[in-house]
Structures are given as C-alpha cells and as structure tokens.
Amino acid sequence: MSDHERKRRPEPARTHPVRHPSSAFRSDAPPAGAGGATTNGHPDGHTDAQAAAGNPFAWPAEDPVSRAVRAGCDVVEAAVRRGFGLGRPPGPWGGAWPPGQPGQPGWTTGQWVDAATGAFTMWAQWLDAWSALARSIVTGGAEPAGAWPPPPVSTTGRSPAGAPSHTHAHAGTGALRLAVELRTARAVSVQLELSSGSGVIASGPSTALEVYGLLAPAATGAPPITDVTVAIAGGGVTVTLGSLEQHPAGTYAGAVLTAGRACGTLTVRLT
Amino acid sequence: MAAPPAVVSEVLHEYGALVRDAVREYLPAVEPRRYLYDLVADYPGRGGKMMRPSLCIAVARALGAPLDPLLIAAAASIELMHNAMLVHDDIEDESDRRRGRPTLHSQWGIAMAINAGDALALTSLRPLLGAATSNPFLALGILEETEHMARESAEGQALELGWRAENVVTLEERDYFEMVLKKTCWLATIHPVRLGALIAVVGRVDPTAFVRFGFYLGTAFQIQDDVLNLVGDETAYGKECAGDLRQGKRTLMIIRLLQLATAGERDRLVAHLGTPLAERRDSEIRWIRDRMDHYGCIDYARQVAHAMADAARGEYTRLFAPVPPSRDRDFLEGLITWVVERTS
User: Fold this and answer.
1) What pTM, to 2 d.p., does this model score?
2) B91 lies in a domain?
3) Using CB atoms, which residue from B137, B177, B212 is nearest to A113?
4) Is B159 exposed, middle or buried (0-12, 13-18, 19+ CB in 10 A)?
5) Which domain holds residue B333?
C-alpha cells in the first residue's frame, strides 16, 4: 500500500435510531423494515394513534437507546395531549365552560391572544359600521370620497366548498377590498390582518407582501400550507391559495411579511 | 455528527452582547448595593452561553420579526429569570461553583443569596412591563407564557429534589424525561422558542407547535450537560466535575447504572445515594464513575443525546422549512449540533 493510499473502514450498518423521510410529516405507518414495529408503528403495540402519529422515529429492534428515545417521545406527546394549562386557576366562569370554549383551563396563550384580538376586531368593525352610518346621515347619504390609506384592516373572505373560485369580500366601510383566489374545491375561510403600525397600508398599492407558509398546530400533524401568496394591488388585497386537497381540516396561520418584517397575519380555516 | 457551524458562535456572541447590554439596564443601580443589588448583578455579570435569549431572538427573526425593543426586552427577561433560577438552584443543589467562580451562597450565605435570587426573579418582569405600553395584548401573552414556564420549572425541580430527598431509585428513562421536560426544557428551549414565535406572528400561531422542537433540543442539551459534568474540563465547564454524582442527581447515566448493576453494586450505589451530602466519600464517587465506564453508561447517554438531536432536526425541518433562508435559520439548525458537541 502506498503512503497516499488510505485505509477505509467499511460503512457501519446503522441500527438505531433511524429517521425516515416517511415520518417527517408524522405518517402513522413506520418505514418498511423497521424492526419490532407493529401495525401502528409502536413496538410494544401501543394503540394510541396520536402518540404513534407524533413518533418521529422509525422504531428499530429493541435496544436501550431506542427504548430511551421512545420514552422521551412518549413523554412529549403526552404533554402535548395534556395541554399546558394544567394547574391554571379557573377563569371567571369557574372552569365550567365546555371543552374548547374560552376561559377553559388549558387554553393556550395563542388562543387567549386570538380571542382578545378577535373581540377587539369585532368591536372595531362594529364601531366602524356605526361611524359610517353616522357619516352617511350627516352627508345626506353621500359617502365621502375614499382616500388612500384606508384605516387598519381586518378583513375576511369565505368560500363554500365546490369548484375553485374567485371570491370577494368586504369588511367595514373604509377597509381594503379582499379578493381570495382559490385553486381548490375545499371550503375555506380566510382572515387577513394587517397591522396599522407596520406602514404597509400607508405605503400604497406597490407594497410587496410575502407569506412563507401557514402552520397548523403540531398536534394535527398537518403539513404547512406553502402554496399561498398575498399581494396588494389596485386598493385591494388578493390572497391566492393553491391546492389544499392534501391538507386536513383545521386552522393554519402564518406571518405576512414586507421587506423581511412582520406586518400582519393570515389565517386560513379549512373545513 | 459534524462540528457546529461558525454561525452558532457568531450569533451567540452577537445576540449575547445585545442582551447583556439590555440586562444591565434593568439591573437596579441603587442602594442597598452591598447586601442586595451587587449580588443581584453578580451572575448576569459572569457571562454565560446566552443560548436562551439568542434562541428567542433567532426564532422571532427567522419568522420575520424585526430586532425591535420588544424582542430584546423579552430576551432580556428570559436571561434574568434564568439567572434568578440559577441562584436558587445552586442553593438547592449545594453547588460550589458557577461559571468558573464560587456560587453566590458560598460567598454570601444562603439567606442573602435567596433574597438576591428573589429580587432577580422580580427584576425579570420589568422588561415585560415596559413592553406592555407598546402592545398590551402581546405583553399579556408573554407574561402568561413566563408564568407558565416558571411553574413548569418549579415542578421539574421539585421532582428532582423529591427523588433525592426520598432516595427514589426505581426510576426509568420516562421519569427522567418527564423531569427534564419540566426542569430544563421549558426555560432553556421551549419558552424561548415559543416566545420568539409568539412575538413574530403576534399571537396567531398556537405555540404548542414549537413544544416538540424545544423538548428534543432541550433534552439533548441537558444530557450533554450531564455528560460534561462527568467528563468535561472543569475550567471550561465552569462547575465542579462529578458534582452531579456527589449531589446524587438522577441522571440518565445513574438510571442506566441502576438498571445494569449487579445486586451488590446496586445496593452500594443506593447506599451512596441515601447518604447525607456532607458524608458522601470521594472514593465512592470514583467507584460509581468506574462502574459507569464499565457498563458504558456515558456512551449510552451520548447516543441518546444524539438521537434526541436527530429528532430536534426533524422538528426543525418541519417548522422552519417554509421560512426563507437566513442567518437566524442557519443558527437554529446549527444549534442542534452545538448542544451535543459543545464542551462547556
């Protein structure tokens, strides 16, 4: 063997733990050939589908490291299922709300902030509607000419299930017009909120907006929606959503960015 | 596993300096300095890795948030709370050294150290109160997250202290992970990641999505910390070597040793763990360490840490793949390697 020739060890066979692309999005089934796996991918026959769905590992033959990693995986899945509001004192309703309702112990911060923001938005829209009514009375029914920039917007659009559609929806008077272009037959509810402090609305119709993905809560195991764009043009906002057939029902949300800065949020609800 | 990319140390250095400056502004420069505020400023002034606040800032920026005062305030709050907990942890663990110097209570006594830790914990709320004036809804959300994190951490610490107080030796890996999830992961990784995401998307994404990433990353971090306590260089590590064995901490390696030891060895180990701290002998600690080597307990822990890092990488891909490439995203990916390859 020459001095330049290097000895090479044979590539060792990897026995544990083996990640597999098929588990990247929490498919229920383990990759083929994962030793010791049962039909739901859990080596000890665990039947908790949610735990199995959350298993990011392909279980190989039973060995101490795999067993330990599986234990860790089970712990975090159990914690996610429990939620993180345990021990929180009951709300003003004494914790008597049915599951999933506001005020119930276990509500996440996101839900609280969501509810607070939603309530504020409804109040603002209601106020806006009354303000518009008062203005129309004062001006004898003639709406004052619209001017750019309009006030901060929270605007929603809804599309029924059916053929791919082009939907327009209007929020309160003075809000941006929202157009939703769908290339899907799914029923979709879209909510776009642009921050009044971001300067996006004031900067005019040439503003470039970006959305890089809408995430669902991890517990659903749903992949993010990435085929989505938001654009401001002609005094309105157009949200374009691509194929959503592979996405399970649920709420998907993500940040709307302009020049790398968050300027609002986009929420899509699939039913 | 490859060496962590240079971007990790760069970002830790840059964001660390930013947060250290912010932390200094929140530390009261008033009397009584000698018996309180000098002590309060002691641990934050010793440096540290700054992983927690850097993680918060990097997640927020990777998701599109600007590096604004609210984000820096949240990161400073995390660092202050971390330091407050270190003061009390060192008392509870009867530790001698922290960041290469004597612990606060060994310098000033337990009573003054507890009081300084209390003051530091309260100081960690100041940045959040300041943020409330700019965005009350978001500040309320951050405050609630902080309260939740502190409670989880206390529950995790209680688990570990309870096991040691009652000399519980029938533990399994699941128990260890339950304890680490609460004691370590919430403050070290889950909370910073959730806060960063919360700030970036103004509360619109359920932060539960980030719990798994934080858990796997934090667990890999904790196991590596436990390993370094046994094999690390004391100067770089900054804490007393084998301190965990002396304190009788239920690490993954101790749990593994309890599983593999012969009946006689197990009795000896259980007796050591049941001995009052002051009476634990160096010879027994050396014997435990020898048995750990004999049964491959440290290698086992390293493998579990690397597997957890693999899982964290999977969660990272899931969460951050839709996000545009950036230095912050690279940092988050590199951090996964860093937590298991670090030597301090």
Assistant:
1) 0.64
2) yes
3) B137
4) buried
5) 6-341
